[in-house]
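COMPLEX REQUEST
Ligand: flavin-adenine dinucleotide
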Amino acid sequence: MPRSISDSAEYVVVGAGLAGAATAWQLASRGHQVTLLERSTPAAHDGSSHGSARIFRYAYPDPFYTRAVLESKRLWDGLAAASGTSLITPFGAVDYGPERNPRLLASVLAGEGIEHELLSAAEARDRWPQIAFDTEVLWHPGAGVIDAETSVNAMVALAVGHGARLVTGWELHSVERTGTGYRLRSAAGDTMVAGNVVISAGGWLPGLLGQLALPAGFLAGLPEITVRQEQAFHFKYRESDGGAASGAGGWPTFIHKAANIQAYGLPGGRDAGLAGQKVAEYNGGKLIPSACEQTGEVDPANRRRVVDYVGRYLPGLDLEPYAETTCLFTNTPNEDFLIDRVENLTVLSPCSGHGAKFAPLIGQWAADLATGAGTVPGRFRSVTSSALTT
Ligand SMILES: Cc1cc2nc3c(=O)[nH]c(=O)nc-3n(C[C@H](O)[C@H](O)[C@H](O)COP(=O)(O)OP(=O)(O)OC[C@H]3O[C@@H](n4cnc5c(N)ncnc54)[C@H](O)[C@@H]3O)c2cc1C
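STATUS: Structure written out below.
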């Protein structure tokens, strides 16, 4: 039965993950009238922003992203202050492996004045005996772990505090153009009218793109968006290792690119009882057409690969995972975000497995683009959209 909710808004933001929550917060704090529509609840358990652990790091081979992290961190600090909540825990990060190029990463951090050290494998093993480093290691202490779900809730609460309306259980089915704006229709048959729409639907975006009344030229110019059902595993810290290895305080986050596997890990936080390290293979999950097709089932072959990896490279962890989960990566081919607008409809896909750390900045970029107050880096927009949008 269609619900009767006040049916018009200046801005409707669809999806209350990190991207949508940040956009709603930015728009509402600028005095715009905002409705945030979410098919489930904020930080939906089957989306990409649930749980307590995402890596925050400055190390990128491309200085553009390192500079963006610096900008984002200022906004994270503002968010923490405004919400009175601690959102990033500073564990530091190690980057290593033959394909990770720690030396290049160190030069980028040096260029931006970010504290770091380049260590030999032996020096790093002395410092973190729980990790079997195989190459030089970049250490930067400013990295840490973002509590994703708490961050979403903090941004939604601030948005609501600025007058935004959160509507949960409202699943967008389609958008059509009206004379002055857009009419949104839900899967249950509810409608809502909006002057401007921001779609931040994470892994559901590929399934929605054809329903948004987007001009064919805009659609054709978008990068290919693929969705992977990723999996992450939690391994307990070995008691016998004592000292640095016995608790999250001694474990940094890591990214390790070996020839045959790209792995990352981080203290798992609340998600698995604060007892271990979350470890995953980057882009190790299966491709699915969109989030609607996710099964939530862990692939046993991936579990075996990650367990083998832990046995080989992480001697400070127990060999059997004590918890596991799936999550969605929404990827563009070059891992740049998609933040684009045509007419008064903005599309966000800030994932590619590395979007969490940019969340408040993505909200700022999206709000700038949606309102016309500013623009976004050209690499996030298709060539056709620049021509179509004023
Ligand atoms: C396993 C994993 C590890 C990651 N690790 C890191 C990391 O270490 N560092 C980092 O920086 N980033 C990381 N990321 C990336 C980061 O988490 C994502 O960039 C971010 O969560 C994406 O947020 P989103 O808002 O775009 O998508 P989502 O969080 O999926 O939000 C989309 C929301 O839209 C809602 N929705 C969808 N369709 C509709 C509809 N039709 N109507 C209404 N609502 C709808 C969904 O319910 C959902 O709540 C990781 C991601 C994953 C999955």
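REMARKS: DSSP finds ten helices and 20 strands in the chain. Residues 63-83 form the longest helix (21 residues).
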